[in-house]
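The instructor's notes for this session suggest beginning with a concrete chain rather than abstract definitions. Hand out the sequence below and ask the class to guess, before any prediction is shown, which regions might be ordered.
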Amino acid sequence: MKKFIRLLSVIIILSTLLFPQQKYTLKMATVAPEGSSWMAEMRDFEKDIKELTNGRIQFQVYPNAVQGSEVDVLRKMRLGQLHSGTFTGVGLGTIVPDVRVLEIPFLFRNSDEIDYVYGTLFEHFQKRFLEEGFYLAGWAEVGLVYLYTHEKVESLQDFNKVKMWLWKGDPLARTAFEVCKISSIPLEVTDVHTSLQTGLINGVYVSPYALLALQWFTKVKYMLGYPLTNSIGAVLITKKQMDKMPEDLQKILMQKTKEYMRKIVLKSRAENLESIEVLKEAGIQVTPVRAATAIAEIDAAGKVIREKLVGELYSRELLDEMLRLLEEYRSTHGS
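After discussion, reveal the predicted structure:
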């Protein structure tokens, strides 16, 4: 018996040496700058994955948008040059348009509502992205988006003096500004700072943290204290690359990605709140929407926007399901 066990041990050792377990390197692109909290979490994620899989999965992360725009990253993923990437709602919408239902303006009232709806609809969108050749590995929320202007605004009526930036190619923002009668100019993100300097535009919309990081805050004076929307983000992994890996590695990768993306979401929310205070210290004035008529006008605009996008971005069934989930949560937990 001892000889058999000894022989078996030798066979296992030889098998490991002669037929080592295959290793997988996932090339991942992100716009997040090195040194940011997002990249700090990603570095911890890389280390954790490497340890849990005994080095069988390793990441090669390209930060600082060195792989190009979201369109560039998506093209490279489809060609197999990259295997994973982080995307905003605009990029995600070019793959699965109906995911933009999660970014409908003037809808969510707090992060608990967002978590409930996003969590419930995750499997639905996972299926939709798989149909397009991608795994939805986890939400990486950008956060609440606000409107910032050079001129003071306290209601939608005040936007008649604003030339708002419009993310080029974004049908949701285009429709929102059309309904709200806000004049907008389509530009790529990379052209916004220069356009603020020249006066081509005098209004932008991003999360507070992004406004600081992009240095746009130096060209605006006011922040409307009523969020436009909640901006989604997500990590995608190509199905082609994922299918190369055995099931045990797939489970570890998906589980840990979700876990770390959740950490990033919570950290992002905290940083956005901190950023509002930093913006105030920098001289940005937050103008609250107090008038009942202004709030009613905003709510009415939100309803018109979401109706106009039925059939263009998402189906009636999906919109109704999301609104049902929202009402379900509010009836249980309150507004």
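Then share the key points. DSSP finds twelve helices and twelve strands in the chain. The first helix runs from residue 2 to 18.
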